[in-house]
From TrEMBL, chains A, B:
Transmembrane portions of the chain: none
Keyword check for Electron transport: no
Native organism: Characodon lateralis
Any Pfam family the entry gives: Aminotran_3
Keywords attached to this entry: Pyridoxal phosphate
Cross-referenced InterPro entries: Aminotrans_3, Aminotrans_3_PPA_site, PyrdxlP-dep_Trfase, PyrdxlP-dep_Trfase_major, PyrdxlP-dep_Trfase_small
Cofactor: pyridoxal 5'-phosphate
Family (UniProt): Belongs to the class-III pyridoxal-phosphate-dependent aminotransferase family.
Name used for this protein in its record: 5-phosphohydroxy-L-lysine phospho-lyase
Coiled coil (residue ranges): none
């Protein structure tokens, strides 16, 4: 094909030689070379088509012509930095403001979700004059030094516990619960666990309060309240509570109703801010709402919202939205914030085009329709396959959690990897796994994902699980 | 004009309302609205043309058609993330490798110079297992939390000295020299100075070793050696020496010959790495060399090079280059490094197109020719105008330092601001000021800057300085 310059083998060899190996490939044992994409479809060097269930960045579909057109027109006209006045940045901020509660009216444009979260930390610290941050168990907020510090998903795997990183004793019991599910757990593991202040993940499927609890939102929020009290007793002060509005790496979790409002109340009482990380979940993925934090009700409004991935449909574009007061405190320090590329006319033109496509093509409506259909089909599959422990989701943010037994909810890690591998090899369907045990098959496809796509993927999962059962492949593969 | 959607006044009002005020505008008292640009020219909403002497990001010229074409073609084809195999990322890494010493053969692609420097810090920490960083006085390495910590230019203005930030007593005497030049200096100022480990800026114009020193490179390197010994005596360990290859915010400084090799030797002996920040200076700006660190001779090679601003001609694209050994240590920690947008096919296509244009249009040759002419003309101006203390530069990286008296080198801060303002208002020429006292007029124009442009700007500066002298405006404006 014209798009290919090297053979796949050559590309792979060059990649191994020239690109840091920490940058991993999908399907590392047999990576896929993709040369073309359109909508929800990827095409490899031989023209083979893959259904893409995971590219949440290419939000309105791969290579959407309206995005390319907007980018090209602006690139041909101007792409200076934001120290010059320009219409695009203010128009785009105005359009974003219209999707948010009124008080989130000040914007900072940056180049990645990581840059957005780093800036959110700076804003929170500057406004509160506090330092400590509360994060959810297994959270991931970005690849920067400051964000690895607040991402248990990463910092637990890395050496170097910082002086300001603490193990909150009150929550060791929760931690124990979690660690005990791992093989070879001993109390000594606790010593190795490098934990910042930590609240338990409000996961009603396998967390400490479950579906049968009368008010899990309140109950989980109360754990944060306890934690705050513990932190204050230690003489420390909270700058921010940081959470994804739908914890993604945590396992495609849907926060219980009432949780965020209550947490925000407790955090604010302690002088801290509520930061909603919408980097994976914003821009209508939830369908019913433009922002996933809005699922928590109209009375809830974060103090800072960070956005990224889908914002530029692949173009490096991200943003922090906050209040006049918080922005004012940041301005008052007298130090300029200059982001070289952030908010340039091309980035903003692309961002505006993404908003237009979401509206014009009713992609939120599509997310509701297709997402609901996908969830329904997966729930039907759950009746048939014992290994499906949970089906959860909202819009086109869907998780299918595999467990080797429903009682103990033992994570079906290997089965999940196996299903993902077979979907790729046999059906050319790209899904990936997530969650603390990589036991959740996740679906965050481009928002143009269709009913037929949903049906196809469920049919294929059904076939693979049926086949596994027939060949008795299920349990002996698990070794958790 | 068709490109304008709001009146300038409306744009300004929306900007003030919607964009964080820490994001400052050029010419804040009377900002410029730019709606179009081409080459080295900017056009405002009335079609008025400005000569751009400062946009080092739009390296091969604003809106270069070859860049737009490459971006459009790739946007239409594919813009998936780098977890899929793709030719562009490996081809681009290969092309970059060809510009660098052989040992810098492993690449990480990111979205901004800040992301690159943050990753460089992580790489250095991981490889050396040390934490401390040595930076040059007045350095600026980016807007992220981790980089403000290593940027005296920023952290001195901000509250919150970290536990790991130290004042190195041996260097207080240098600091005193510098502070004494400020008004109202008292010894108490020292206490307020939040300094990390700090080496004096190797500035042969106003530093501690000057043009008349027989070997300023060695002498300045020895200050770093002393500093390293001091740090080691304190029981601390050096992860990296971090410096721009031509300190920019520091005042468009040209490092003395031999400095970097010697510093690298001392830093490596202490187990640390040499990080060359080429974010402002790379991609041929120096003319004679593709990378400014190469000005230090063929025997010098950094351990890590970070690059950014000009790399994508305005597109958010940046990179870290390092050795197999350092990348290997980073891989060995077992944690994936995933940068959502970094190294995507569109970013790499743009990066490749930039490299092509630099070659095809001989922009390095142009930088030598025009830069040399500009420096010659400015030096002639220096003979005529007492206020021009120093003219320095290489290629299209040029600084004109104003002083109110040549003996004491009192910074001509207000004059520099005044000249910049008049150049904008009377001649539609954009220059800006830099350096510890904002007394340096800096020239880092798009690389297509012409002989005529150079002659025009020098002629205009001459006229403004002559006029100031005639009207005796020079000294009473200064209040340093």
């Amino acid at each position: 094909m014209a798009e290919e310059r090297f053979s796949k083998q050559e590309t792979l060899e060059m990649r191994q030689r020239l690109i840091g190996q920490s940058c991993r490939l999908f399907y590392s044992e047999d990576p896929v070379k993709i040369v073309k994409a359109r909508g929800q479809y990827l095409f490899d060097e031989n023209g083979k088509r893959y259904l893409d269930c995971i590219s949440n960045v290419q939000h309105v579909g791969h290579c959407h012509p309206a995005i390319t057109k907007a980018a090209t027109a602006q690139m041909d006209l101007l792409n200076a930095n934001s120290r010059f006045l320009h219409d695009n940045i203010v128009l785009y901020a105005d359009r974003l403001a219209a999707t948010l509660p009124k008080k989130l009216s000040v914007f900072y444009f940056v180049n990645s979700g990581s840059e957005a979260n780093d800036l959110a930390l700076r804003l929170a610290e500057q406004y509160t004059q506090h330092e400590d941050v509360i994060v959810l168990d297994h959270a991931y907020h970005g690849h920067l030094k400051s964000l690895i510090d607040i991402s248990p998903y990463k910092f637990r795997k890395l050496a170097g516990q910082k002086e300001w990183v603490h193990v909150v004793c009150k929550y060791i019991k929760l931690l124990v619960c979690k660690l005990q599910k791992k093989k070879n757990w001993t109390p000594a593991c606790l010593k190795d666990c490098k934990l910042s202040f930590q609240a338990p993940l409000p996961d009603t499927y396998r967390g400490i309060y479950r579906e049968d609890h009368p008010n899990p939102g309140q109950a989980y929020a109360d754990t944060v309240k306890d934690l705050i009290e513990e932190i204050i007793r230690k003489g420390r002060k909270i700058a921010a509570f940081f959470a994804e509005s739908l914890p993604s790496v945590g396992g495609q979790i849907i926060l219980p109703q009432g949780y965020s409002s209550k947490v925000a109340e407790y955090v604010r009482t302690a002088g801290g801010l509520f930061v909603a990380d919408e980097i994976q979940t914003g821009f209508g993925r939830a369908g019913t709402h433009f922002w996933a934090f809005q699922l928590q009700g109209e009375d809830f409004c974060p103090d800072i919202v960070t956005m990224g991935k889908p914002m530029g449909n692949g173009h490096p574009l991200a943003c922090v939205a906050t209040t006049v007061e918080i922005a004012g405190a940041f301005t008052a320090n007298g130090v300029e914030y200059f982001n070289t590329f952030g908010g340039n006319p091309v980035s903003c033109a692309i961002g505006l085009a993404v908003l237009d496509v979401i509206e014009k093509e009713d992609l939120r409506g599509n997310a509701i329709r297709v997402g609901t259909h996908l969830i329904d089909l997966l729930k039907k599959l759950q009746e048939k396959h014992e290994i499906i422990g949970d089906v959860r989701g909202i819009g086109l943010f869907v998780g299918l959690e595999l467990v080797t037994d429903r009682q103990n909810k033992t994570p079906g890690t290997k089965t999940a990897a196996w299903v993902a591998k077979r979907l790729k090899e046999e059906d050319q369907i790209c899904v990936s796994t997530d969650g603390p045990w990589e036991s959740v098959l996740k679906f965050k496809p481009p928002m143009c994902f269709s009913m037929e796509d949903a049906e196809l993927v469920v049919r294929c999962i059904d076939r693979i699980l049926t086949d596994m059962k027939a060949n008795d492949l299920k349990l002996q593969n698990e070794d958790i």
